Amino acid sequence: MKRFVAVIITTLLTIFMATAAMAFSGGAGIGADEALARLKEGNTRYVGAASVAPRQDAARRHETAVGGQHPFASLLSCADSRVPVEVVFDQGVGDLFVVRVAGNVANTDEIGTLEYGAEHLGVPLIVVLAHTKCGAVTAVVKNEHVTENIGKLVAPIVPAVAGVKSRFASADLDEVIKRSIEANMWQAIADIYAKSPLLKKMAADGKIKVVGGLYDIDSGDVHWFGEHPSNAKLLGN
């Protein structure tokens, strides 16, 4: 009898430890491609006025309060009030790990947060989400006067804008702004890899995927760009 009880206790402890390990590793138990598919499906619902606003009730709040968070995607997005990330992708409480900052720049705070999502929460997908009519990028393009703190914040945008102005010297202002918004999205992805050995290695090992997207604040549609055009080079492959 004692031996039987011991076996039962050992079995229960094994199950408990396995469950705890799963909880610690985090993640929604899906890969980057499925995570991206969920985002695309949610955005399609949103654009088509068919949002279902899932997982936003008391039961979901309790589930995440007791069981912790297991988001399936991290998003580096602009702080612009016209880009409500969970709404845009029709997701609920605990689904997305969102970092919002003017110009969707990738600096120390943003990258550290993304590292936490990838390493500790097991998030398989990182999306750098730019948007049309971005005020931060526009300010850099126009070389507008800004405060010292804002100047430091938008500094990562400067190389992207400089590159666009060099390549499209004869383009009109609207075209330069449009191209700079896209270039800044790519710049943020390059900065993530350059400033985070952890995320670079995880991407090189296939543990995470980093992609870019552009949200149209008028239509509500997200245009997907995929991984950086120089992804292999950035990862050292």
Walk me through what this model shows.
The chain has 237 residues and is an alpha/beta fold. It has helices spanning 2-25, 32-47, 58-67, 85-88, 108-119, 135-141, 148-154, 158-167, 173-195, 197-204, 231-234, and strands at residues 73-77, 96-100, 125-131, 209-215, 222-226. It has a 5-stranded mixed β-sheet, sandwiched between helices. The protein is globular and about 55 Å long. Mean pLDDT is 91; it is low at 4-26.
Number of strands: 5
Strand content: 5-15%
Mean pLDDT across all amino acids: 91
SSE string, helix = H, strand = E? HHHEHEHEHHHHHEEH
The major pleated sheet works out as:
5 strands, mixed
Content-based structural category: alpha/beta
Uncertain segments are: 4-26
Going across the biggest sheet, name each strand in turn. Answer: 2-1-3-4-5
Shape: globular
**Termini gap:** 59 Å
Radius of gyration using CA atoms only:
21 Å
The total count of helices amounts to 11
Q: What percent of residues adopt helix (DSSP H or I)?
A: 40-55%
Brief sketch in words of this structure:
With 237 residues, the protein is α/β, with parallel strands linked by helices. It has 11 helices and 5 strands; from the N terminus they run H-H-H-E-H-E-H-E-H-H-H-H-H-E-E-H.
